[in-house]
Amino acid sequence: MELLKNFINGVYTAPVLGEYIDNYEPATGKVYSQIPNSTLDDLELAVLAAEKAFPVWSKYSIEQRGDILVKIAEGIEKRMEEFVKAESRDNGKPETLAAHVDIPRSVSNFKFFGTGIQHFASESHYMAGEGINFTTRKPIGIVGCISPWNLPLYLFSWKIAPALAAGNCVIAKPSEITPYTAYLLGEVIKESGMPAGVLNILHGTGASIGGEIVEHPKIKAISFTGGTATGAHIAKVAGPMFKKMSLELGGKNPTIIFDDCDFEKTVSGTVRASFANQGQICLCGSRIFVQRSVYDKYKEAFVEKVKKLRVLPPSDSSANMGALVSKPHLEKVKSYIELAKEEGGIVLTGGEEVKMPSPYENGYYLAPTVLENLPYNCRTNQEEIFGPVVTLTPFDTEEEVLKMANSTKYGLSATIWTSNLERAHRVADEVEAGIVWINSWLVRDLRTPFGGVKQSGVGREGGWEALRFFTEPKNIFIKY
Ligand code: NDP
């Protein structure tokens, strides 16, 4: 059984108390490694290392820091296959998805912020006859980055890359459910020339080591991606400590289809937006609203395409979908399918587990599930399921669909399918979301602000937003 270690002060380090927790392979349902169940003792070692490293790292020139981040990107690229296989094994996602999305985008994150920091400028405001204000932006110090299991290295790197580029030292915790690629990253960090203690990676449960990171007085900012309930808890703890916080939380995203859409493109685009990564992407569209005049036609074409999706072990190169991330998550998603039925939902396809031959018979496979006949305000349509389950709901007017789309407590993303430009603008403007895609989905430009409104989060990541978050501005006025 492989024992993973923390990465503290540039060295793989066993947990002080010697406690470990099991790490499961979703494809088989078997434990295949163990990870440190880190405690405050481990965190104190990491804080000590980060404190020592900060005066050195924060004084590196932006070129030096940028070069190291680009080396990290190249280091991951060199081991692409190893990272792809590790991500797929740990998470259950198809290897093809990890190879096309997760790991390349992790590489991009390091490259983007490694080069971006070199173009990052602070502000200056001239006051005629008075003088000039200029703003310095210095690194904050030690920051905590906590990430979820659905896009493990992708979201981990999305946080730590800007934090490091801005000159901070980082204490990062990947999800206990998907620790492996963050663990592998330590090797790449060592080879990159990054000074010891700049990036420390601690493994363990959210409630224990995650909580300790949030509470530690020397950790000045928390960048968190995960569920809304966890985000609320973190805000309650970190708020009174006046820590800077960036919270990227849950979603229940609407997909809005008008009868003037490009039909074929809409069907394939919305199948992907519904079931990519087994529906476990915070940006997946889980509530599909279809204009009544094309509802039946869309339903038929969509369901036919969904039935053709291949749910297979993640290492199978023809898999469209792999396994869900964990047994408890599978049970949670199944319980929502039961709830939907109780609420009057009709299962058009899916709704049950997919049984695999040995050695995958205990893996967590669920058929892509499409439901209809549910009121827009029932629990199935209001609560985040975060799995391969979508609902279809007809609508007549823009006004009606906006009311339904905006009815949840979430506001992360929305997708609109129409060929009417004016309508696209009108609906995009009115829909309550931080990110809107028109006739597309998941197109990412790393310069754009990323995040949600309402209970989908506080703050934005991406581009300058992230670099501003990870720096402390000071305005200085000088009189003429
Ligand atoms: P969780 O909120 O359960 O966990 C997220 C991270 O926080 C994990 O590393 C977890 O550790 C840790 N954590 C849990 N409890 C605490 C705590 N009390 N203090 C500090 N850290 C804690 O989310 P999931 O991992 O289940 O991820 C799914 C959620 O993430 C969905 O709601 C999804 O919408 C959201 N998400 C949002 C995105 C966005 O950009 N807005 C992007 C991707 C996902 P551990 O795993 O050990 O419990």
Topology:
Layout: E1 2-3, E2 6-8, E3 11-13, E4 20-25, E5 30-36, H1 40-57, H2 62-78, H3 80-91, H4 95-116, E6 124-127, E7 131-139, E8 142-146, H5 152-165, E9 169-173, H6 180-192, E10 199-201, H7 206-215, E11 219-225, H8 228-238, E12 244-248, E13 253-257, H9 263-275, E14 285-291, H10 292-307, H11 327-342, E15 346-349, E16 369-372, H12 379-382, E17 389-395, H13 398-405, E18 413-417, H14 421-430, E19 435-438, E20 457-458, H15 463-469, E21 471-479
Parallel strand pairs: 1-5, 8-9, 8-11, 9-10, 11-12, 13-14, 13-18, 14-17, 16-17, 18-19
Antiparallel strand pairs: 2-3, 4-5, 6-7, 7-21, 12-20, 15-16
Helix pairs in contact: 2-4, 2-6, 3-4, 4-5, 9-10
NADPH dihydro-nicotinamide-adenine-dinucleotide phosphate (NDP) binds next to helix 7 and helix 8.
CATH class categorisation of the largest domain: Alpha Beta
Strand order of the largest sheet: 15-16-17-14-13-18-19
What is the helix content? 25-40%
How does the helix and strand content classify structurally? alpha/beta
CATH level-3 fold name of the largest domain: Aldehyde Dehydrogenase, Chain A, domain 1
The number of domains: 2
For the record, give the distance between the C-alpha atoms at the N and C termini, rounded to a whole number.
69 Å
**Shape call:** globular
CATH superfamily of the largest domain: Aldehyde Dehydrogenase, Chain A, domain 1
Strand content: 15-25%
Biggest sheet statistics: 7 strands, mixed
Average pLDDT figure = 98
Uncertain segments of ≥5 residues (pLDDT<50)? Answer: none
The CATH architecture name of the largest domain reads 3-Layer(aba) Sandwich
List of distinct ligands in this structure: NADPH dihydro-nicotinamide-adenine-dinucleotide phosphate
